[in-house]
Amino acid sequence: MRQFQFTVDSEHNKKNNEFSRDATRLQISAGIFGFVLALIAFAVMRISDGAPWGLAVAIGLGTFALFCFALIFILPRQMGSAQAMFESYPLVPAMVAEVLPRGMVLMALVDANASDSGKPVPALAIRNMTNLRGHERVVGERVPAVAVAGRRSVSTSDRWDEISPMPIAWGTADAGTVKEAQKAIPENEWNTLQKHLDKLEKVKATDMNLLIL
């Protein structure tokens, strides 16, 4: 696995890394949902006037509310820090595959192999994003990134079902660092990805935005 070591600028990452923003949004949603469930549980208890059915419903809703509140603390630990994520996942070539009115689609050439051994499983992964500071909004723009692995099913446990590119530029504003990461990726990989940009619609048609080549 090819890795790229650099020091993440926490303030820059906080403003630009959409992975971090996604986690924050999930935490907020979990908190709001938990609060609503707690209110409903309280209302059920009042309406039922202590009846067994009301107590059972309230306990169920309260348990679910506690789980939602627990997610506020669990989610950051599950994802890990931005520094850990950039250090843990492999460096891969990614390119702007489509420019949208309010964002763009980034395509990366990744390895979907999830086992400790075996041959690489080349695949194309895409991610919609709104911000890519430090890069031009043009199709074919080279964007070094790390391939963040997501889900995998029981039936295909040796292969990732979901992989999402996370640009190095989300973790640092230093153009030199981004350029260094770009150079660390072999030219033949950039060329291979360039040739597959026309498969964007095929990647979009997959369940998890991951197309095995």
Automatic annotation (TrEMBL):
Gene3D superfamilies attached to this UniProt entry: putative membrane protein from Corynebacterium diphtheriae superfamily
InterPro entries: DUF3239, DUF3239_dom_sf
Residue ranges crossing the lipid bilayer per the database entry: 28-47, 53-75
Keyword terms: Membrane, Transmembrane, Transmembrane helix
Pfam family, one: DUF3239
Protein name: DUF3239 domain-containing protein
Organism, scientific name: Corynebacterium kalinowskii
